[in-house]
TrEMBL record:
Transmembrane segments: none
InterPro entries hit by this protein: Inosine/uridine_hydrolase_dom, IUNH, Ribo_hydro-like
GO molecular function: purine nucleosidase activity
Pfam short name (any one): IU_nuc_hydro
Gene: rihC
Entry's EC annotation: 3.2.2.-
Protein name: Ribonucleoside hydrolase RihC
The organism of origin for this protein: Staphylococcus pasteuri_A
């Protein structure tokens, strides 16, 4: 069954991997890409999304979204992804690619409301756009199948001891989304930390096809935590989960966002014992089959 999805993103090297698989996989129908401020500013994330769409000769429209968080001051992760957000690969230049004037929040609303089938939102950046969507147009909830989020952690963080980057960037937005009473799937730091890709594996994908070569070069500039141990492709697991959720351990939980703690702002407080769960937490792979799943998905790319 083909899954209609909207990707909300802040590319980002691991975002690039997720977008590449989604644009190419026969089980995915990407309706649009929405950009947000996050890994780098929204002008750069939008440009990076356009680079990827052009690379794949795709007709998927790209819309620019929020330029800053709801309340917090903007932060970025240029030290992880490079100054452009996708350093390491020379994409072909492109001109005259039309960026619609419609803000991505309006575009997402229109896409959801006109769809004959419930839409899955894949949110792999800060949740600013999605929070604004749900707060401004609550009527979209009835036609959202689920929101699959890369963000949060049931353990330690990666930008502070307790906070993961995407949630930390806009915790108020995350608070709105997690408490919107619609199906949410949280794919946090736990999964990628337990499902790393070795450097030898990354060398292998270089030979698979043009996309593997592109991702290989991007990943040489990816400075995520403990990169010497292996590559943590956080965002790509949103797409792998949608392709085959059965190869992951998934638990019901209640997740709340710390908004005010001096040392804990942006932390995801995960209660696996709650009698009132508000999301599913994808915690770990069942086996090493995630690598085979990645290679299979990559094989559909150019």
């Amino acid at each position: 069954m083909v899954i209609p999805i909207i990707i909300d993103t802040d590319p980002g090297i691991d975002d690039a991997a997720a977008i590449s698989l989604a644009l190419s996989h026969p089980n995915m129908e990407v309706k649009m890409i929405s950009t947000v401020n996050g890994n780098v500013n929204v002008d750069k994330t939008t440009n990076n999304a356009l680079k990827l769409v052009h690379f794949f000769d795709s007709k998927v429209p790209v819309y620019k979204g929020a330029a800053r968080p709801l309340i917090s001051d903007p932060v970025d992760a240029a030290e992880v992804h490079g100054e452009s957000g996708m350093d390491g690969y020379d994409f072909e230049s492109f001109e005259n690619h039309h960026i619609p004037q419609t803000n991505s929040i309006e575009a997402i609303k229109d896409e959801i409301m006109k769809s004959s089938y419930p839409i899955t939102i894949v949110a792999i950046g800060p949740l600013t756009n999605i929070a604004l969507l749900l707060a401004t147009y609550p009527e979209v909830k009835s036609n959202i199948n689920q929101i699959v989020i890369m963000g949060g952690s049931s353990g330690r963080g990666n930008v502070t001891p307790l906070a993961e980057f995407n949630i930390y960037c806009d915790p108020e937005a995350a608070n709105i989304v997690f408490n919107a009473q619609i199906p949410v799937v949280m794919i946090g730091l736990d999964l990628a930390r337990k499902a790393m890709f070795s450097h030898d594996f990354i060398k292998e994908i270089k030979q698979v096809n043009q996309t593997g070569n592109m991702l290989y070069h991007l990943l040489q500039h990816y400075r995520t935590e403990n990169v010497h141990e292996g590559i943590k492709l956080y965002d790509v697991f949103t797409i792998l989960y949608l392709i085959n959720p059965d190869i992951f351990n998934v638990y019901d939980a209640n997740v709340q966002i710390e908004l005010h703690g001096l040392l804990t702002k942006g932390a995801t407080v995960v209660d696996f014992e709650s009698l009132e769960p508000n999301c599913k937490v994808v915690h770990s792979p069942i086996s090493t089959h995630y690598q085979d799943l990645f290679l299979n998905a990559l094989s559909y790319c150019k």
